[in-house]
Amino acid sequence: MKKIFVLLSLLAIANLFGQEQRFQGQPPVNAVPTDSKPVQKQWKGQFAFPDQGITFSNEFDGARLNGLVQNNDSTYTLLITSENTPINTSPWYAFKVWGKRPMTIDVWLTYQADNKHRYYPKLSHDGVHWTALDSLRYVEIGKGEKAFGPGSLPEKVKMRLEVGPDTLWVAGQELENSARVNAWMDSISQKKFVTKNTIGKSREGRNLNLLSIGDTDSKNMIMIISRQHPPEVTGYLTMKSFVETLSSNTKLAKKFRKEFTIYVVPLMNPDGVDNGFWRHNTGGIDLNRDWANFNQPETSAVKDFMEGMVEKTQGKFYFGIDFHSTWDDIYYTVDPELHGNMPNLVSTWLDGLKKRIEGYDPNIKPNGDLVPTTVSRNYFFVKHGAEALVFEVGDNTPRDFLKEKAEKGAEALMEIMLERIKDIP
Ligand SMILES: [Zn+2]
C-alpha cells in the first residue's frame, strides 16, 4: 500500500512537472488600432577598429546592429534596438565581422531597456549555411527562472568568436531575407504547375509575391502565409517544407492538385525582414493585428487577392494556415464547435499528424472568440469559412523535426481533404 502511495505521489509530481514544462500559449489577442506609426531606420555602415584590424558591418538586407563600443583589444559590446515601441520580446540581430588576421574576440550582445536576449547565435561563412555557436563559447548573464517567455531569458550574452579575413556572419536565426525567399520562389516556380506573381507592394516598394500551385480556375482553394513577423524563421522553414510537399511529384500530391489549388504568400513582411525589424512592418504595425482594419498594404493585398479569387472562381477557401515561431511548438486553432466549409478539418488533421509521428502529442489551443477578426486565422475563418489555424514552431525546434512535421503534416492534410471533398456537392 505504502509503495503504491509513493508511486502515485511520484506520478503526480511527474505530471505536475510535465504540465509546468508545457508551453501554455499566449494570452488572447486584443484588438488594437493599426494606423501607421513612425519607425526608426537603422544607421547602415561599418564599425571599424583599424588598430586591431577588426570591422563589423550591418550593410546587408536583414542585418540588425544599432551600436557598438570597443571595451578592449579583443572585447566589443553591441547594442540591438527595435524599430519602435511598445514591442514584443523578439530582438532580432544579424551582422558581419572580419579581421585583417585571425584572432579570437569576445562580443557582448546587449539590448534596449526592458529587453533581453532571445535567439541563440548562429554562425555562417557564406550567409547561406548556418551552424549554432558552440555552447562552450557562449555565456548568459542574468537568466530568468521561467520555462518559457521573456521571464526565461538572459539579460545579455557573451559570444567568443574566431574572426579573420574570411567574413563571419552572426545572426539570431538562419538569414532568410527577401532575396533568399525570392530565390526559393523562383526555384519552385520552375515546375510547370507553379507560377509566381505579385499581388501588391509593401510601403517601401518591395513586391508581395504569391505562389499559385495548380489550376488557377479551380473553385477549391487553400491559403498559406508566413513571416508576418520578421524573426520567425523557424515558422518560415516549416512553411517551406510544407509547400514543397504539396508541390511534390508523389501520387498523393498530384491527386491533391487536381482537386485543390494552393496559394502561398511566403513573405508577408518583406520590409520588416530586410530592415532587420523585430516585429512590425514599415508602418510600425504588427501585421497580425490588422486583419480587421486592413490599414496596411501587406494585409490588404492578401484580403483583395482572396476576395478576388472567390469572386472570379465562385469557389471557396477550404483551409487557411499562417506559420509563425514562438517559445515552443503550439497550434492556435478555431474552436471545433464552430463549423466552416469543411467542419472539423483542423482537429482531424492534427489527429492525423499525431498518429504519423511516434510519441508526438501536439499542443493545441482552440479559440472561439474570433470577432473582430484582428488576426489572419480569424479572417480566414470568419470571412471565408476556411478551416484555419496558426501553426507556431519553437525558436529552437530542431530543423529536422520541423521538416518532419511539415512533410507528414502536408501528407495527412492532403489525404483528409481528398476524402472530405467527396462529401461536398
Ligand atoms: Zn508571429
UniProtKB/TrEMBL annotation:
It comes from Flagellimonas pelagia. The active site is at residue 392. InterPro entries: Cytosolic_carboxypeptidase, Peptidase_M14. Residues 1-18 form the signal peptide. PROSITE patterns: PEPTIDASE_M14 (PS52035). CDD domains: M14_Nna1-like. This is Peptidase M14 domain-containing protein. The lineage of its organism: Bacteria, Pseudomonadati, Bacteroidota, Flavobacteriia, Flavobacteriales. Residues 173-420 form the Peptidase M14 domain. It holds the Pfam family Peptidase_M14. Keywords: Signal. One of its GO terms (molecular function) is zinc ion binding. One of its GO terms (biological process) is proteolysis. Belongs to the peptidase M14 family. It comes from the Bacteria. The keyword Signal applies. Its cofactor is Zn(2+).
